[in-house]
From TrEMBL:
PANTHER family found in the cross-reference section: ABC TRANSPORTER PERMEASE PROTEIN MG189-RELATED-RELATED (PTHR43744), POLYGALACTURONAN_RHAMNOGALACTURONAN TRANSPORT SYSTEM PERMEASE PROTEIN YTCP (PTHR43744:SF9)
CC terms in the record's Gene Ontology section: plasma membrane
Protein name according to UniProt: ABC transporter permease subunit
Similarity annotation: Belongs to the binding-protein-dependent transport system permease family.
Length: 293
């Protein structure tokens, strides 16, 4: 169909406007990358960097050789891997159970799940619960309180309800138990949903900050986002946590700003690298639980 002149003008204006918005969100990250690769001497003489004349990896070499940052990186990686795996198993298992018609307590569980969406106990009761369970200063204090989400359970429940029950019945005729049906049949056919929700869980665990501030007092258990925040504050005020002070002092006298920018790039890079490989599953998984006709 031929477009009218007004429609073409509107499309051009629309694309240009959306392109400017996309560029405005991309420019800060580009600036961070440029500063992180800027030669320290050049940055000290000219703090405003548009495009560096001399490139350098000194800031990256420094933060990647610092024990504090590497330890926080490993903690965040463990959180993202272990936490995502546990969250997917719990969420998918609970959603599959609630999607079965023969489960008699389905209504009771659904009311309890919906209740958590409407009422939040708050920070102090959550802290007291974590403390009474003996999870303070443990990695599980950052996983168990956010192990699942009521909204994700409801979406995955709708997804499992769309799977024909004949598939489950045929598997049981072949001798599969309920657990066998779940792990051998249901999980393989729900790969798109698992990848989509897994990406959400992984990003949330990777960006863990507030719970770590509440529940973690040990320097060795601090995730990367907490170390980055301390680094930003200390670089700006020259006061702060002694465990991070070494990241702002080196024999090469690196500017704190280049160290901060390098740390931000390293923190963002894993998610940026993983997302393109999961994009096709992510696009399909976003339709989980939607009404199809």
């Amino acid at each position: 169909m031929k477009q009218h002149r007004g429609s073409r003008v509107f499309d051009i204006f629309n694309y240009a406007f959306l392109g400017l918005i996309a560029l405005s969100t991309l420019l800060p990250f580009i600036y961070v990358v440029l500063v992180s690769f800027t030669d320290p001497i050049e940055y000290q003489t000219s703090p405003i960097v548009i495009f560096p004349k001399h490139w350098s990896l000194a800031s990256y070499e420094f933060i990647l050789s610092t024990r504090t940052f590497l330890n926080s990186l490993s903690v965040s990686a463990i959180l993202a891997i272990v936490g995502t795996a546990c969250s997917l198993i719990l969420t998918s298992g609970l959603a599959y159970t609630l999607s079965r018609k023969k489960f008699r307590l389905k209504r009771v569980f659904m009311i309890g799940i919906l209740f958590t969406m409407l009422f939040n106990p708050g920070m102090i009761p959550n802290y007291l619960l974590v403390k009474e369970l003996g999870l303070i200063n443990t990695i599980w204090s950052l996983i168990l309180p956010v192990l699942s989400s009521a909204w994700y359970v409801i979406l995955m429940k709708s997804f499992y309800q769309e799977i024909p029950e004949e598939l489950e019945e045929s598997a049981k005729m072949d001798g599969c138990t309920d657990i066998g049906v779940f792990f051998r049949i249901m999980l393989p056919v729900s790969v798109t949903a698992l990848v989509a929700f897994g990406l959400f869980f992984a990003v949330a665990y990777w960006n863990t900050y507030f719970n770590a501030v509440l529940y973690i007092n040990k320097d060795t258990l601090r995730p990367m986002q907490v170390v980055l925040q301390v680094l930003l504050i200390q670089a700006s005020t020259q006061v702060g946590d002694p465990s991070v002070a070494q990241m702002l002092q080196s024999d090469q006298m690196l500017p704190p700003e280049t160290i901060k920018m390098s740390a931000v790039v390293v923190a963002s890079l894993p998610i940026i690298i993983v997302y393109p490989f999961l994009q096709k599953y992510f696009a399909k998984g976003m339709m989980v639980g939607s009404v199809k006709g």
